Amino acid sequence: MIEPTSPELQKFYDIFDSVDQTKVSEFKEFLETNAVNFNLFKDGNFIERSFPFDMIPRIIPKAEFDTLEAGIVQRVKALNAFLNDIYTDQKILADGIVPREYVDSAKGFLPSFMGVVPPKAVRTHISGIDLVKDAVSGKWVILEDNLRVPSGVSYPLTIRRAFRHTYPEFFELMKISKIKQYGDELKAAMDYVNTGGINVVLTPGRYNSAYYEHSYLAKITGATLAQGDDLLVENNEVFLRAYNGENLRVGAIYRRLDDDFLDPEEFEPDSLIGVPHLASAYRAGNVAIMNGIGNGVADDKGIYYFVPQMVKYYLGEEPILSNAPTYLPYYEKDRKYVLENIDKLVIKDVAEAGGYGVLFGNRLSPEQRAEIIKMIEDDPRRFIAQEVIEFYDLPCMMEGGIVPRKADLRAYVIYGEEVSVSMGGLTRYAMEEGNYLVNSSQGGGFKDTWVVEL
């Protein structure tokens, strides 16, 4: 079902029914010139490719987005409070709101960082909150919280520049909210937690799928783009190896690699992309790491189930936005329901991300169904199950014309002195008709998102 739109906005969408192919060529040329890539690893191979894009933006009325913004800010504040609590007093566990064993068994929970309080007590510096618009209720529903290394914000920032270049008249005729200040807001957040020194964007290198984004964000924030071997730790302080031999103190690191690879002395000893002893500098309070080490516990899809209760517990407020209907096989009642209704549910591995570990029950063969049932029975903590959300299609320009495709929205949140939501976001769409997996890492495309004041 195509998302309905107002007559005012439909007039804009109608323009793309007969778009000049010259405009499409201009878009492609702009993105190719700027090397806008999202690379894939498939069948053991590294595939460097342009990120598929669509010229037709998603348009959200500002009044509608205002509700989204309020709900997202509320959620990120609660998640930051949860992380601070989990790594200090663990009051939410003592009060039985979240089962203690559920946190203790979370893959992303790092007990060795208990008692570590990051600069300014901010852990969720950069969040990506994934939402879809339910075609049945017309309401926005949160699917996932990404609090470790969410990617994608550079792509709407870049394509917005292409739009301004190709269609300047739209920005004269429509009240489209600006997003170009994202770089300034990100820099302000880095400066806010900086412990003294320069800001660094830590990248695994050019073979990472989002390397384009790493270099782009370093550029717009004025931070230094560095790889692991560009940094060293001495006396629990982090330094950038300068070309002139004079090392520069580092006060904040926006890391774009997972905990496992961040410090070979602390985590994966074979990691060649991390910084030895970085965790020690973090524990000593001598460097801010964005996002905080150990955030993966809140990324756990099982912990997602409890976020509405976190909002009530930490903020004393009712949640503005809802989760998708979710079941935890960890609980006997939920497990019984899941096993009896597996054909109509989506099964997710709690520790996976990027669209991996997602199974649609109605697409499983009898053998696959029997296998996943046994896996759930053997290790119920490993999975969640969700009702299938029939979310809207959006019009997408593909070869052969404009076609409907499933699409979600990733909203980007910066937690600095204040919490702010970018007035747009990354709309991701599936390339194949009827596909519900829109993730970039699954080969999906992207389009800009315009927040428009009507």
Main attributes of the structure:
454 residues; alpha+beta; Rossmann fold; Dna Ligase, domain 1; 3 domains; nine-stranded mixed sheet; six-stranded mixed sheet; 21 strands; 31% helix; globular
What does the model show?
It is built from 15 helices and 21 strands. With 454 residues, the protein is an alpha+beta fold. The chain has 3 domains: 242 residues, no CATH class; 91 residues, Rossmann fold; 63 residues, Dna Ligase, domain 1 (2-Layer Sandwich). The protein is globular. Strands 3, 4, 5, 12, 17, 18, 19, 20 and 21 form a 9-stranded mixed sheet that branches. Strands 6, 7, 8, 9, 10 and 11 form a 6-stranded mixed sheet that branches. Strands 13-16-14-15 form a 4-stranded antiparallel sheet. Helix content is 31%, strand content 24%. The model has no long low-confidence stretch (mean pLDDT 90). Strand 10, helix 10 and strand 11 form a beta-alpha-beta unit. The protein starts with 6 loop residues before the first helix and ends with a strand. The longest helix is centred in the first third of the chain and has 25 residues.
